[in-house]
Design goal:
Blueprint (H helix, E strand, L loop, with lengths): L6 E7 L5 E7 L7 E4 L10 E8 L5 E7 L9 E7 L2
Antiparallel strand pairs: 1-2, 2-3, 4-5, 5-6
């Protein structure tokens, strides 16, 4: 729940366009407005589990894991600081 009372959901889209999506509800989850945080991420579709935190200045930080190739390489952690 955001400081203004809205609900925020961050999720990954593993089908094209691959990326991180943000959804916000101002009616307790009855309806959602969607935003694209990232789109057509490089590397592979093996990415996801985003988590978002609201920062004291009103901006947001979302982070997620992502593999750089389809092999067994270690995953990397990526992040983005953003505002609406």
């Amino acid at each position: 729940r955001l400081s203004d009372g809205r609900l925020l959901l961050s999720c990954a889209s593993r089908i094209s366009p691959i990326g991180i999506r943000i959804f916000v509800s101002d009616d307790e989850g009855a309806s959602w407005e969607g935003y694209v945080l990232t789109e057509d991420l490089p590397f592979t579709a093996d990415m996801g589990y985003p988590a978002t935190a609201e920062l004291p200045d009103g901006s947001f930080f979302t982070l997620w894991y992502q593999h750089t190739d389809a092999g067994a390489s270690p995953a990397i952690i990526r992040g983005a600081r953003w505002t609406f």
